[in-house]
Amino acid sequence: MNKLIATLALTLGALSLPLLAHAQATPQQSRMAQCNKEAAGKTGEARKAFMKDCLAGKPAAAEAAKPTAKEPAKVGNKAAADGKKLTPQQEKMSFCSKDAKAKGLKGEQRKKFMSECLRKK
Question: Would the pTM count as exceeding 0.85?
Answer without folding.
Answer: no
